[in-house]
Amino acid sequence: MATLELNKDNFQQVINDNANVIIDFWAPWCAPCRGFAPTFEATSEKQPGIVFAKVNTEEQQEIAGAFNIRSIPTLMFFRDQIIIYSEAGALPASAFEQLIEQAMALDMDTVRAEIAAGQAGSS
Fold first, then answer.
1. Catalytic residues
2. Among 71, 114, 119, 122, who pairs with 88 as Cys (CB 3.0-4.6 Å)?
């Protein structure tokens, strides 16, 4: 599956309409971003149940600002509209695939319960 380019017009719909979305926040001038791009693309071909998307932080500054992106590349993984991973830095292919395996193995009912417990404790 080819990667999607996200912008302010399609971002929310892609997150809302798909259970699993991995976003690569990048910029054309960023050498580590360009180096990671082939890994991101190749991995997307192996994972048909996940939407792989990219946000060009130069063109989509509003989205980058909303997610407080300070360093690129930054990977963000959404499951059921919940951010379960957000870290800056390019990953080697094996580490990226391992991250995906771990993320997909999460019990989202447990994640939601932990979020609810955290919100109840902070109010």
1. 30, 33
2. 71
CB 30 within 8 A of CB 90: no
Q: Where are the beta strands (DSSP E) in the chain?
A: 4-5, 20-26, 51-56, 74-79, 82-88
Residues 49 and 46: their CA atoms lie apart, in Å, by 9
Choose among 84, 61, 80: nearest CA to 72: 61
Instruction: Kindly tell me the burial class for residue 7, based on how many C-beta atoms sit within 10 Å of its own C-beta (0-12, 13-18, 19 or more).
Output: middle
Residue 40 in tokens: 């991101």
Question: What's the token pair of residue 76?
Answer: 């963000």
CA distance 89 to 96: 11
Distance CA 88, CA 75 (A): 6
pLDDT digits (tens, 9 = 90+) for 7-41: 999 999 999 999 999 999 999 999 999 999 999 99
Tokens 């997307």 label which residue? 44
C-alpha distances (whole Å) from 71 to each of 26, 35, 89 are 9, 15, 8
